[in-house]
Amino acid sequence: MTSFAIEVTPHARLTVDDMAGLRALFDAEYLADFGAWDPDQPYGYAPHDVHVTARRGDTIVGHVGWERRIIGVGADDVAVAGVGGVLISPHARGDRLGARLLARAAESMASAGDVRFGYLGCREEVVPFYEACGWRRITASERSIDRTGRPVTQPPGPPLLTLPLGPDPSPWPTGSIDLRGRAW
């Protein structure tokens, strides 16, 4: 198994080199389809408070980002770590780096103290990967601000996954979800 250095860095502590490495990672994957990566609104989604990165030498080859937010679920307010920007360089795939990054991200979310769940939306074809990493699929409608800045409500069906956190994790509450902002 290839050796990678995995680091957890608050967004405000990213260096100029970190930003350049993240830009290179994301632009290599998405530039042609979505344009240049913008750390303040990556491809129209919400930015991250925390970046979990993997390096091989000086090169960033993997990333998971998360942002703490209070969302509405039914009648409840729920503190979540909204996860996005999960990306592994094609040159670093095959070593279970994605699972290792998600595990480290979960540790950082749990150590944040007041985050009850990890939360993410994804494409159907990657659901088995997240489930293998301990995430649980839920079914609910989801209200958010879309990538163009407009409110949108997605009916139940597209993949939404949660990860209970903490020493005594609770079940996900029932009801429709209001992200109270952009998705991750």
Question: How would you characterize this protein structure?
Answer:
The chain is of the alpha+beta class and 184 residues long. It has one domain: 3-Layer(aba) Sandwich (Aminopeptidase). The protein is 22% helix and 37% strand. The protein is built from three helices and ten strands. The chain has helices at residues 16-34, 97-111, 127-132, and strands spanning 5-10, 50-56, 59-73, 76-88, 117-121, 136-138, 142-145, 151-154, 160-164, 177-182. Strands 1, 2, 3, 4, 5, 6, 7, 8, 9 and 10 form a ten-stranded mixed sheet that branches. α2 (97-111) links the parallel β4 and β5 (117-121). The radius of gyration is 16 Å and the shape is globular. The protein starts with a strand and ends with a strand.
Write the layout of secondary structure elements.
Blueprint: E1 5-10, H1 16-34, E2 50-56, E3 59-73, E4 76-88, H2 97-111, E5 117-121, H3 127-132, E6 136-138, E7 142-145, E8 151-154, E9 160-164, E10 177-182
Parallel strand pairs: 4-5, 7-10
Antiparallel strand pairs: 1-2, 2-3, 3-4, 3-10, 5-9, 6-9, 7-8
Short description:
With 184 residues, the chain is of the alpha+beta class.
What key phrases describe this protein's structure?
10 strands; GNAT_dom; Aminopeptidase; Bact_Acetyltransf; GNAT family N-acetyltransferase; acyltransferase; alpha+beta; 184 residues
Instruction: State the low-pLDDT regions, or none.
Output: none
First-residue to last-residue Cα separation: 30 Å
CATH architecture title? 3-Layer(aba) Sandwich
Number of helices: 3
Which of globular, elongated, flat, extended, rod-shaped describes the shape? Answer: globular
**Quick one: how many beta strands?**
10
Backbone structural class = alpha+beta
Q: For the CA atoms, what is the radius of gyration?
A: 16 Å
CATH topology: Aminopeptidase
**CATH H level: which superfamily?**
Gcn5-related N-acetyltransferase (GNAT)
Sequence of secondary-structure elements: EHEEEHEHEEEEE
- On the 0-100 scale, what is the average pLDDT? 96
